[in-house]
Write a structure and sequence with these properties.
Layout lengths: L3 E4 L6 H12 L4 E5 L8 H4 L2 E3 L5 H10 L4 E4 L5 H6 L1 H22 L2 E3 L2 E2 L10 E3 L10 H20 L2 E3 L1 E3 L1 E3 L12 H11 L2 E4 L7 E5 H12 L12 E2 L3 E3 L1 H9 L6 E4 L3 H8 L4 E2 L2 H7 L7 H17 L4
Bound molecules: nicotinamide-adenine-dinucleotide.
Amino acid sequence: MKNILVIGSFGQIGSELTPELRKRYGHSNVVAADLCIKKDNPFLSDGPVEKLDITDPQAIADLVKKYKIDTIFNMAAILSAVGEKKPQLAWNVGVNGIFNCLEVARELNCALFTPSSIAAFGEGTPLNHTPQDTIQRPGTMYGVTKVTGELLSDYYHKRFGVDSRSVRFPGIISNVTMPGGGTTDYAVEIYYEAIKKGHYTCFLSRRTFLDMMYMPDALNASIQIMNADPSRLVHRNAFNIASMSLEPEMLATEIRKHIPDFTMDYAIDEVKQGIADSWPNSMDDSCARKEWDWKPEWNLTSMTEDMLKAIRQKQADGLI
Ligand code: NAD
């Protein structure tokens, strides 16, 4: 990777992936692109920023030519809870978006990373130790876009040799940009509310286990897979990756080690609960470990310490 385009740079993951890529590959070599440019974001001053609509294939091709891009990170998406309210938009961004990126990648010879998700699973999928290759019948529009993206990406690799690779992210926990309307958002909100109010009302029920991952592991996975030796890759789109299988009480208990008076109650959101119940409790990531040496570094204890420290700093700086 020499010249990189990140589409969806200002979202929860893109806003941390872009600086990480700039740190590793040079600030001027990583182009931050998004439909919504946030003016207060520090990328504006430390590297190229472009407004881009992923549903416009010519605009993607123009940027790839302008910056001589060899690798595209496609982080644009409409997440699960929003996608249930706006299915056409979710399809347009999720499926037409990846299709456009694959076509540009084919014509202009780029590698392409487009994350999939635990949402790519659903009815009939074994929910514990979910295998790499298994039934994928998602019950959300978001999940439908993710399975379609996986299929299209494998098709373009097999048919045209496009170097498409990806991972199925679990719920990502982070402290820079708030999540964009997904079912696992509670696992980020709980930390902010613990610090701001000492209380959180959780929209998923007790005993709802879901795979989660701390952002630094998600960033490493995204970059590591794009640098993996292709001759070792049996799979491509997309690898299960796992780190922690958590239910809300586990997060609350860990937070109480630092904020003993923290309390949590529940007000179940039936739509989000239904989505969460259809997703894996824990994914089997042995193929990623075997084919490109994937290994997470963070656990619940270390993540909670780091999250609370970072959010307290934001509070001290008047940012929240
Ligand atoms: P997000 O919603 O926070 O950010 C998405 C970004 O895409 C936003 O900045 C938005 O402005 C941009 N975007 C939307 N429509 C666009 C368009 N037409 N053209 C260009 N940009 C557009 O999402 P995220 O959480 O950062 O997710 C990034 C990727 O990771 C997505 O593919 C998502 O499905 C996947 N993923 C995320 C999680 C998670 O927990 N955050 C979990 C699993 C998979």
